[in-house]
Amino acid sequence: MSDSALACTHCRQPMRPLRLAGHYGQQVDIDLCERCHLVWFDSLESVRLSGLGWLQMLRAMEAAHHVEHLRPEENLGCARCGLQLKTVHNQTAFGRSTARECPKGHGQSQSFNLLLAERGLIRPLLPADLAAVRASGEPFCCVNCGGDVRCAREPECSWCGSAIALLDVARLVRALTPGLVLPGQPERDDEAGVARHLAWPCRGCGAPVDPSRDDACSGCGCAVLAPALGRILPLLDGLEPQLSALGGRLRAQDAPALPVDLMRQRLDALERSRVRVPWQEPPQADQPDLEAPAWRRYLPAAVMLGLLCWMALGRR
């Protein structure tokens, strides 16, 4: 982590540096702007985050919801070099995602809701979902800025302009804790004594639901969704000791070769074994063929000379 905090790509104020848990005991440094609700990732930082690291970032996002939102402008600048960021569209397993990327590859900036949507952790708001949330009386907040959207009449948040969405709690739990029992899989004990089931109160009937195994309540059929980041804080509190116990068993020296490192090694080996051929300009169509017989070079001049002689004789 650098001594000086990076400036936000939008408001140019210092961002909050976060040191999060990565895979195999490593640490990952990212930067978060609490006013603009943006996250800045350097190269490959997002893929290096472990489940515990994502849990820590979700807590930081929820804390930023208590800060008044500052809507970003379109001409965002790179946090490293200041160049204008370009909009990129990536295809993921959950659909197309959007990010703002530095032309020099220094990193990318994403809003909270786009970052969560890229991981498939939120789902669009359906009319039935909105009616259920309003009937339950729960707080309904924008996933991006935390603004109250219970009375929203448009599909976008009036505070930040982001699409209104709900957190998919079942998918979130499975993404954070891949070691938990999934639907259709047999139960098994863990060496670290990690609890294999979680309890989530159904917002329809209040019955306990295990989001690691169930997408909806078996009693009333209500989907396992959360209308606000603050709603999942108790669940994150219950998951953190389990993730810490699982992460403690993996050390950096036990980490296998990462696909990115393996790819770089293969590219380096290919570069060393590559036979370099000097570049040659391809022959142009209008250039003379140097391999043609010599008499062909003088054929146009001979034809022209014969034509002139014929014209001179005709005048006599």
Q: Please describe the biggest sheet, giving its number of strands, its sense, and whether it closes into a barrel.
A: 6 strands, antiparallel
Structural class: alpha+beta
Number of helices: 8
Strand order of the largest sheet: 1-2-3-6-5-4
* Net shape: elongated
State Rg.
31 Å
State the helicity in percent bands.
25-40%
The unreliable regions are 180-195, 252-258, 270-292
Q: What number is the mean pLDDT?
A: 78
- In terms of DSSP E residues, the strand content is 15-25%
> How many angstroms separate the termini?
97 Å
Series of H and E elements: EEEHEEEHEHEHEEEHHHH
Q: Number of DSSP strands?
A: 11
Walk me through the topology.
Layout: E1 16-21, E2 27-33, E3 38-41, H1 51-64, E4 86-92, E5 95-101, E6 108-111, H2 112-118, E7 122-124, H3 127-136, E8 165-168, H4 169-176, E9 200-201, E10 208-209, E11 225-226, H5 233-248, H6 259-273, H7 294-297, H8 299-315
Antiparallel strand pairs: 1-2, 2-3, 3-6, 4-5, 5-6, 7-8, 8-11, 9-10
Give structural notes:
This protein has helices at residues 51-64, 112-118, 127-136, 169-176, 233-248, 259-273, 294-297, 299-315; strands at residues 16-21, 27-33, 38-41, 86-92, 95-101, 108-111, 122-124, 165-168, 200-201, 208-209, 225-226. The chain is α+β, with helices and mostly antiparallel strands and 316 residues long. It has a domain at 16-181 and 198-247. Strands 1-2-3-6-5-4 form a six-stranded antiparallel β-sheet, with helices on one face. A three-stranded antiparallel β-sheet has the order 7-8-11. The chain has a two-stranded antiparallel ribbon with strand order 9-10. Helix 1 runs antiparallel to helix 5 (233-248).
